[in-house]
């Protein structure tokens, strides 16, 4: 009889112990799943800054931002769960460079944009840059087009914003003509932000190829070199992007995907 009682007691202890172990393991797995699910749902808050300038010097032609340089990074980041805010110096509609909206400049990203009423509505109703708080964002991205050469290069709000992002060691990314926005940006030591940094941007020969060397207020390649940047490039129209710390720059429209990838990787 004692033997039977001992066996029953032993089985009871083992059963209770197994239940506790199962419950603990299940709770642990649930916590892990919750953490994984939370990580998936976490948003990346990224600010896109576009130009408000639409006049191509004294040519009588229009300019603005280059669609591919906006659309490719926009969808690359959006599809990964990023929350994107779009701002311009003046707010309202951001001008699109007509040349970038032609069939010759079409890409999968531009075609998607042209069929995306929500994205087009956001471009038509951008936020005034002065109303943006850099503390609300994890990174900033500047698409190119010739427009930034005239406004963002000298815009005090934009300059201060980039300096704040840089001081916080947040990713700051630019493609094609957008590095023009770095022209008057300073590092904490008072030197040009690009001094001693590896950078790229629209080349002098690419500008000559589109016959705008004597139209633009300055050449991006020259400016980056004059400000002490360690400038490098590939052959004209080749995809090329380079990163130095939190600074990411791309050479031309074909480089927009590379810039987006580097920005995305920096936010992981």
Which terms would index this structure?
seven-stranded mixed sheet; 268 residues; 9 strands; disordered N terminus; alpha/beta
Note the topology.
Layout: H1 2-41, E1 44-49, H2 67-78, E2 82-88, H3 108-114, H4 117-124, E3 127-128, E4 139-142, H5 156-167, E5 172-175, E6 198-199, H6 204-209, H7 220-226, E7 230-231, E8 241-244, E9 247-250, H8 256-266
Parallel strand pairs: 1-2, 1-4, 2-3, 4-5, 5-9, 6-7
Antiparallel strand pairs: 8-9
Helix pairs in contact: 2-3, 2-8
The level of helicity is 25-40%
What is the gyration radius calculated from CA atoms? 26 Å
Number of strands: 9
The oligomerization state is single chain
**Low-pLDDT ranges:** 1-42
Largest sheet: 7 strands, mixed
Ends apart, CA distance between termini: 65 Å
Instruction: Report mean pLDDT, rounded to a whole number.
Output: 89
- How many distinct helices? 8
What is the overall shape? globular
Strand content: 5-15%
Structure classification: alpha/beta
Instruction: Describe the strand arrangement of the main beta sheet, using strand numbers.
Output: 3-2-1-4-5-9-8
Order of helices and strands: HEHEHHEEHEEHHEEEH
């Amino acid at each position: 009889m004692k033997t039977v009682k001992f066996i029953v007691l032993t089985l009871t202890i083992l059963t209770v112990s197994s239940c506790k172990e199962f419950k603990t393991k299940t709770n642990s797995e649930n916590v892990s799943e919750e953490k994984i699910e939370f990580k998936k749902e976490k948003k990346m808050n990224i600010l896109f800054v576009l130009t408000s300038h639409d006049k191509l010097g004294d040519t009588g032609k229009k300019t603005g931002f280059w669609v591919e340089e906006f659309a490719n990074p926009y969808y690359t980041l959006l599809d990964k769960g990023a929350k994107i805010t779009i701002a311009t110096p003046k707010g309202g509609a951001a001008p699109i460079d007509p040349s970038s909206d032609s069939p010759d400049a079409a890409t999968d990203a531009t075609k998607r944009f042209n069929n995306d009423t929500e994205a087009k509505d956001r471009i038509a109703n951008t936020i005034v840059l002065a109303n943006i708080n850099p503390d609300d964002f994890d990174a900033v991205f500047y698409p190119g087009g010739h427009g930034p050469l005239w406004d963002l290069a000298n815009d005090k709000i934009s300059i201060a914003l980039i300096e704040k992002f840089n001081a916080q060691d947040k990713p700051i990314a630019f493609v094609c003509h957008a590095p023009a926005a770095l022209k008057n940006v300073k590092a904490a030591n008072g030197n040009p932000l690009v001094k001693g940094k590896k950078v790229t941007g629209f080349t002098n020969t690419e500008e000559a190829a589109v016959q705008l060397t004597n139209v633009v207020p300055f050449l991006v390649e020259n400016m980056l070199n004059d400000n002490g940047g360690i400038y490098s490039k590939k052959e004209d129209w080749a995809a090329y992007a380079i990163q130095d710390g939190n600074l990411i720059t791309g050479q031309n429209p074909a480089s927009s995907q590379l810039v987006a990838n580097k920005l995305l990787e920096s936010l992981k």
